[in-house]
């Protein structure tokens, strides 16, 4: 089945086309319109669509799309293969649920620590049996830099530096970089250590716009052999849900 998969995030909207489980094309937009959607519909023989959104209001182009083909709204009712033990499933972000679904679909024989780097940093865990109990949410990389600038009177707005390796800042700019980036590194390793206390086999799956950056932070750690980069994990999770829903 050829599916149109839509992930509406806080900053970007990602739209992908899958043939069964093969990713054919992916595009991302700050704000897509009907023209972009129609171009994909004209290029592929799309049979169904699935949409996930972290925003409470529907985008204008969504109504037009629903007039052309069936669009399944992604939520906990659509997912199969995941035993969702989250106490308030209706408040669980669909991007987190989709990422967990994608992780368990791609790596079903082991536990998966799923770390998403975007507007926020999310930490979730799904075991080999597909059991999911919840996770954690903290401020994202850019949010931390912006917060230091916004909530202080004298700290400048600094850009992330993927080549920064010194643990100590020797001026204001490098002190901010050290605090933010080393803070995230220690946060990452702290959460991972907590998850693996009871797990003998696991993957660390990084996804989202800052996933590669997090890989850089962890490259010299003991966790490096277990890291898997899946930048399209949420899209793959959404596609797995609609493919299994169609069976």
From TrEMBL:
GO terms for biological process: coenzyme A biosynthetic process. Its main location: cytoplasm. It catalyses: (R)-pantothenate + ATP = (R)-4'-phosphopantothenate + ADP + H(+). Substrate binds at residues 86, 93-96, 172. Its cofactor is K(+); NH4(+). Keywords: ATP-binding, Coenzyme A biosynthesis, Cytoplasm, Kinase, Nucleotide-binding, Potassium, Transferase. Its EC number is 2.7.1.33. Belongs to the type III pantothenate kinase family. PANTHER family: TYPE III PANTOTHENATE KINASE (PTHR34265:SF1). This is Type III pantothenate kinase.
């Amino acid at each position: 089945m050829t599916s149109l998969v839509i992930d509406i995030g806080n900053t970007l909207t990602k739209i992908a086309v899958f043939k069964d489980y093969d990713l054919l094309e992916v595009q991302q937009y700050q704000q897509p319109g009907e023209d972009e959607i129609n171009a994909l519909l004209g290029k592929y023989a799309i049979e169904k669509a699935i949409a996930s959104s972290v925003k409470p209001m529907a985008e204008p182009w969504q109504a037009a799309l629903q007039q052309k083909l069936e669009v399944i709204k992604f939520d906990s009712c659509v997912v199969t293969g995941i035993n969702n033990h989250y106490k308030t499933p209706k408040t669980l972000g669909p991007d987190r649920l989709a990422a967990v679904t994608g992780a368990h679909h791609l790596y079903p024989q082991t536990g998966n620590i799923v770390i998403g780097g975007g507007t926020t940093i999310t930490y979730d865990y799904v075991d080999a049996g597909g059991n999911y109990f919840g996770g954690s949410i903290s401020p994202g990389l850019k949010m931390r830099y912006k917060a230091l600038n916004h909530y202080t009177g004298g700290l400048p707005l600094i850009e992330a530096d993927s080549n920064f390796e010194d643990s100590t800042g020797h001026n204001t700019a490098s002190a901010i970089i050290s605090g933010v980036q080393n803070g995230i590194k220690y946060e990452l390793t702290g959460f991972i250590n907590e998850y693996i206390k009871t797990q003998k086999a696991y993957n660390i799956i990084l996804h989202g716009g800052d996933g590669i950056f997090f890989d850089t932070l962890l490259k010299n750690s003991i966790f490096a052999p277990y890291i898997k980069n899946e930048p399209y994990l949420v899209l793959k999770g959404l596609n797995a849900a609609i493919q299994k829903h169609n069976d």
